[in-house]
Amino acid sequence: MFKKILIALAAVVIVFLAVAAFQSPDCRISRSAVVAAPPATVFEQINDYHKWVDWSPWAKMDPAMKQTFEGPPAGTGAIYSWAGNSKVGEGRMTITESDPAKRVSMRLEFLKPFAATNTAEFTLAPEANGTRVTWTMIGKKNFAMKAMGLLMNMDKLVGADFEKGLSNLKEIVEKK
To answer: Around 85, how many Cα atoms within 13 Å sit in the side-chain half-sphere?
Structure first.
């Protein structure tokens, strides 16, 4: 009986690992919101890491988070690094492209709790009621991330943070 349980357990583990191995390596998470302000006003908040503290959902998760800024104060080449509690981890963002009032692209490097490198992008599109801001993260999943994705919905988890950040950004920009 014990041998049958071990065989069944081994079979479940093998099936789980096989299913994880065949998951797509591509990861894309995206959320949008409309902000009642012109694209240039929204762009100012996104293009300057010093202003992120006011609207970033992760800054609120760890008020004691250590933050450092390097390079120019805003735009291409600006670098923001953070080290915080288990909720925010440790990492670094570098603005790689800054197209005024249209788009900000970043290299996003996670160091802890897991290593990963992704691209984050904010696109701004004028609309009748203001600006549609779309926050997207694109990357590749390693085997561990594929397996974790079978147990939890990463789009929902990270997407919820994007939604909170966009809501915070909307509130700050619309107060100006």
So the answer is: 8
